[in-house]
Amino acid sequence: MVVPSIKYQLFNMQDESVLAKGLVERIGLEGSVLTHQPAGKDKVVLNGDIKNHSIGIKMVLDALTHPDYGVISSMKEISAVGHRVVHGGEKFADSVLITPEVMKALEDCIEMAPLHNPPNILGINACAELMPGVPQVGVFDTAFHQTMPKHAFLYGLPYEAYEKYGLRRYGFHGTSHKYVSQRAAELMGQHMSNLRIITCHLGNGASIAAVKYGKSVDTSMGFTPLEGLVMGTRSGEIDPAIIPFLMKKEGMTADQIDTYLNKKSGVLGISGVSSDFRDIEEAAAAGNERAQLALDIFAYKVKKFIGGYVAAMGGVDAIVFTAGLGENSPSMRDKICNGLEYLGTRIDPVKNNIRGKAQEISVDGAKVKIFVIPTNEELVIARDTKAICASLV
């Protein structure tokens, strides 16, 4: 079961400062709560009976305008709302102003993202109800990867499966891959159009992208976020024949095998410890062999994808680590990069001893630069929203 939540940030786009941020959790369940963090003030925890997204967003707006812990005087100061939308299929190669036609397209994509698009649609409808007339923008996880060529995104299925059902690789975490590849170019003092960058978004959900001259040309996640790397609870790529084999042996239904692959596999299933890499690293350090095996498998898979993408792009200029694990685990970064010296790169152990900070961590003079860059998907959404809404004035 997916427990719906609402994550939000309020930006002042004159200087891109964050005025407030927060999270509404357990919508429709007991123990629902809003955690609100105004800039420069103490965190506020608000419990309530949050039955649906409309109530949750109403609580957020009330918190933003509250006389004690609010950051704006009225809702009139909110000029636009940007939404992260997981799946836009082939319909959207960029962020768009949300219209009735766009909403219809999002509904058409539900079968490709049944766990994610319905809550996205609920959030958009709730904002439209509570803030009539305020423009809304959809920013798609899949959009950045729409530059992939057919030879990269098509599966070895009959072509009719693509034409009839859209069965192809779409890729996800697009806003993150876009942001960190742009930041890497800035840190190198170059333009993205001159660089080949491999971006590693490593967390409970994990994906890698090959960004060649500013465009995504391949990525590890596929038709759904299940494909690719071993993840927290997701299996990543497996032999497709395993699915009917398990269904027969274990008497599983389609829904049960879906849960098995998405919620019970990955490093959780391998280690038997946790889906949280921090717990697994701690268990491995204490001598748990399965926990160590889970870390070894994860690092090996990442390294394989990096090597494959170097080949796909005909070389690489920079490798970027981002997201929870990528930003905060020096040991995992070292484990992944150990053996990539043939590319002309090596991690500097002193530089690598950082967490959540944008910095080059490769040795001085390395041909291929290695970076840690904290992702900022919310800022990408805010920037795209501002750019689109500027044309409405």
From TrEMBL:
<dbReference type="InterPro" id="IPR023865">
    <property type="entry name" value="Aliphatic_acid_kinase_CS"/>
</dbReference>
<comment type="pathway">
    <text>Metabolic intermediate biosynthesis; acetyl-CoA biosynthesis; acetyl-CoA from acetate: step 1/2.</text>
</comment>
<dbReference type="GO" id="GO:0000287">
    <property type="term" value="F:magnesium ion binding"/>
</dbReference>
<comment type="function">
    <text>Catalyzes the formation of acetyl phosphate from acetate and ATP. Can also catalyze the reverse reaction.</text>
</comment>
<feature type="active site" description="Proton donor/acceptor">
    <location>
        <position position="141"/>
    </location>
</feature>
<feature type="binding site">
    <location>
        <position position="7"/>
    </location>
    <ligand>
        <name>ATP</name>
    </ligand>
</feature>
<dbReference type="GO" id="GO:0006083">
    <property type="term" value="P:acetate metabolic process"/>
</dbReference>
<keyword id="KW-0547">Nucleotide-binding</keyword>
<dbReference type="InterPro" id="IPR000890">
    <property type="entry name" value="Aliphatic_acid_kin_short-chain"/>
</dbReference>
<keyword id="KW-0479">Metal-binding</keyword>
<feature type="binding site">
    <location>
        <position position="377"/>
    </location>
    <ligand>
        <name>Mg(2+)</name>
    </ligand>
</feature>
<dbReference type="GO" id="GO:0006085">
    <property type="term" value="P:acetyl-CoA biosynthetic process"/>
</dbReference>
<keyword id="KW-0418">Kinase</keyword>
<feature type="site" description="Transition state stabilizer">
    <location>
        <position position="234"/>
    </location>
</feature>
<dbReference type="InterPro" id="IPR043129">
    <property type="entry name" value="ATPase_NBD"/>
</dbReference>
<feature type="binding site">
    <location>
        <position position="84"/>
    </location>
    <ligand>
        <name>substrate</name>
    </ligand>
</feature>
<dbReference type="Pfam" id="PF00871">
    <property type="entry name" value="Acetate_kinase"/>
</dbReference>
<dbReference type="GO" id="GO:0005524">
    <property type="term" value="F:ATP binding"/>
</dbReference>
<dbReference type="InterPro" id="IPR004372">
    <property type="entry name" value="Ac/propionate_kinase"/>
</dbReference>
<dbReference type="GO" id="GO:0008776">
    <property type="term" value="F:acetate kinase activity"/>
</dbReference>
<feature type="binding site">
    <location>
        <begin position="324"/>
        <end position="328"/>
    </location>
    <ligand>
        <name>ATP</name>
    </ligand>
</feature>
<keyword id="KW-0067">ATP-binding</keyword>
<feature type="site" description="Transition state stabilizer">
    <location>
        <position position="173"/>
    </location>
</feature>
<feature type="binding site">
    <location>
        <begin position="201"/>
        <end position="205"/>
    </location>
    <ligand>
        <name>ATP</name>
    </ligand>
</feature>
<dbReference type="GO" id="GO:0005737">
    <property type="term" value="C:cytoplasm"/>
</dbReference>
<feature type="binding site">
    <location>
        <begin position="276"/>
        <end position="278"/>
    </location>
    <ligand>
        <name>ATP</name>
    </ligand>
</feature>
<comment type="subunit">
    <text>Homodimer.</text>
</comment>
<comment type="similarity">
    <text>Belongs to the acetokinase family.</text>
</comment>
<keyword id="KW-0460">Magnesium</keyword>
<keyword id="KW-0963">Cytoplasm</keyword>
<keyword id="KW-0808">Transferase</keyword>
<protein>
    <recommendedName>
        <fullName>Acetate kinase</fullName>
        <ecNumber>2.7.2.1</ecNumber>
    </recommendedName>
</protein>
